[in-house]
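Comment thread on ticket #2218

A.B. wrote:
> Attaching the input chain for the structure job we discussed in standup.
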Amino acid sequence: MVTAYEDTASGVMETGPPDGAGQFSRVTLAPRVTIAAGSCAETAARLHETAGANCFVARSVNFPVEHRPEIVQA
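C.D. wrote:
> Ran it. Output below, let me know if you need it in another format.
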């Protein structure tokens, strides 16, 4: 069971001529997921992979969204 979730996202933005408009070229999500004592960290990691693969936001943008989760047991 997940008891806490916080995410520190970062991204790379590029600007280009002629108008200097920008766009993201990559985003990395770095969630810290705390699970209850006795929960299986391996299961939590697998579920995070599945959620990342099915994320509607990540599937809707034209740049890679990387996930680097940290699973912590309470």
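A.B. wrote:
> Thanks. Noting for the ticket: The chain has one domain: 2-10+24-73.
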